[in-house]
Amino acid sequence: AKAAGRNTYQMFTKEMHTAARQRLAIENSLRSAVTNDEFVLHYQPQLDPATGKLLGFEALVRWQSPDNGLVYPDRFIPVAEETGMILEIGRRVFEMACQQAARWRDAGYPSVRIAVNLSARQLRQPDLPEMLSGIMKECGADPEMIELEVTESMTMERPVESIRILGALKAMGIGLAIDDFGTGYSSLSYLKLFPVDKLKIDRSFVKDIEVDPDDAAIASATIAMAHTLGKKVVAEGVESQAQLDFLVQHGCDIIQGYFYSKPLAVEEAEQYLARHAQS
Ligand code: C2E
Ligand code: CA
Ligand code: CA
Ligand code: CA
Asked: How far apart are CA 234 and CA 199, in angstroms?
């Protein structure tokens, strides 16, 4: 028993060392990724289920690493958050999205919105509205082409401050959505005060929506409540016809998920835009 205990202990510390080393390695190469501008955006379509019309894309960041290939955000966003590198990455993400929106407009495509994810640290950057407005001007992007996604938990951490910042962004004409809705602890009284246009039902509620009565109840209550407050609802992670049918039946306005399309590299997104955005 003693030997087993020691082995377990050794294994544990070895794992910790490995984790710490891996972590440090990610941190170092992430630093050079920022310097060398190794980030790209993939674009996931958002459709109106009633008409099949493309309404917009969510921009999702990927790290094109020379050593590790395409790295997904779950692997590096947490490190970027902790180290503060997220501010620079987030700035670059916003700039790429604005450039893309302006390019598609200039190429004559019907206008679609590009939704960009904001991190908690960005939301608390004192000069966020000025910075974003500066980037939009530089890129020649109109605020109507851009939407920002902030998570429910991020906004509820400091609700009063969040309401003020979101109000400033909204006044600039940028669209706003609350992401991962249902996973935090919004109080209804606060939600009423949030100047956002959309709620995004989290994928975890969509996953079993046609078999789990709890998830079904949460999703349909969210849709009804959002509509009462004059907000639209986006469902994310929609993979099947059955999920789509349930959501449409309950009045969900916008659908995003593998059922329609996975996130697309920019050339593929442009082809999708050409095929689906009837003006
Ligand atoms: P999220 O904002 O909730 O984004 C949705 C995630 O679900 C994306 O993962 C997307 O690829 C995935 N997804 C979409 N449809 C489906 C589906 O039908 N089934 C399944 N199983 N998954 C689906 P991704 O791209 O790996 O991004 C993960 C998370 O990383 C995002 O979650 C977001 O929190 C964060 N993230 C991505 N890009 C950015 C960014 O530019 N800035 C910041 N701060 N965070 C980002
Ligand atoms: Ca999102
Ligand atoms: Ca989510
Ligand atoms: Ca359940």
From this structure: 6
Probe residue for ligand 1, chosen from 83, 117, 147, 149 as the CB with the greatest number of ligand atoms within 8 Å? 117
Distance 6 CA to ligand 2 centre (A): 44
Residue 5, pLDDT > 70, answer no
Cα 178 to Cα 200: distance, rounded to the nearest angstrom: 6
Query: Of 261, 270, 266, 257, nearest to 41 (Cα)?
Result: 266
Nearest 5 degrees, angle CA 164-CA 140-CA 92?
Answer: 65
Name which residue sits closest to atom 44 of ligand 1, judged by CA.
119
Listed in sequence order, the residues at least 6 apart from 55 whose beta carbon sits closer than 8 Å to its beta carbon are 46, 47, 48, 112, 113, 254
Q: How many whole angstroms from 228 Cα to the centroid of ligand 2? A: 23
What's the pLDDT tens digit per position in 6-39? Answer: 666 666 677 778 888 888 888 899 999 999 999 9
Report pLDDT digits (tens) over 82-114.
999 999 999 999 999 999 999 999 999 998 999
Measured from the Cβ of residue 226, the count of other Cβ atoms closer than 10 Å reads 24
| Model confidence pTM above 0.90 | yes
The Cα 159–Cα 142 span in angstroms is 27
